[in-house]
Amino acid sequence: MISINLVQAAIVAHLKAKTALTSILAANEIREDSWQGDDFNYPNVRVAMGEQHDLVTDADCNVAVQPFSVLCFSENPSSKEADTVAGVVKDILRNTSITKNGIHFSRIRCTGMIPAIRKDERTWRSEAMFQSIVTTP
Amino acid sequence: MPINDLLDTRIRQALTKSADFMAERARGRAPTKRIGASIEVGQVKRVADIYSVEIGVSLKKAPEAGAYEYGSGVHATQGTPGTYPIVAKNAPNLVFWWEKRNKWFVGPSVNHPGVEASPYLKPSALEAKGMLKQALAAACGEALRISIRQSIKGQTVETW
Predict the structure, then answer these.
(1) Residue B36 with chain A: CB contacts under 8 Å
(2) Model ipTM value
(3) Is residue A40 part of a domain?
């Protein structure tokens, strides 16, 4: 098992380094899903983690399967912006292998996309779902 | 895509779609504008093999939401029905136009009879239930079809 917060931080750091994404988002708006703040600027993305499970049952081996979602929020009248951001996230992560903050992600697979729905009366939320094998040295 | 992932994705998509449908219906039924604007849809969560999604009303934004869903005071459908006192806090007296008596009420407290139930969440949930059942059946059917096809063709199915 690898601490989920470390995996989450690595994904956030990777996305923050991608100008294709940061250029279409409000400043500093790539964060963990559980981030509790008062000030939200749109459009923004939040990284939500799923349940991690070991790929092998060897106690000395840090190899795990980690599902995660990137939630994309928009306050535009149309849902288009939320879906566009989710598409950009998918293009950045899909079928890539990355190493960030000492964590290696082997071939991140996009397991699905959920088109934008109204999270509340003013906010659209679109979702890109991923899964990857994560390892630490 | 491995069958497990396909099924997981389809279940998440079906739940999200049904939750969105339910929330839209509830917004349409909401007895006040503030309640409608405070209905929120959460993200689908999976713990072990149990999937869940939350559709709710923020009581911070619309504190009256529960009273309208379940009724309150003498109209309460949950708990013990009865009037409840409202006491003046920021001024010595409560002052309001008393429609029933056609006069102004001025006094330090009042026994409020509450509001009649005007459910907006439960009926919407029941409406969404049928849609969810269909979507889940379709998802399972699709996963089963692909699984059988892959078995017949002898393709390797990834297990992670």
Answers:
(1) 121
(2) 0.83
(3) no
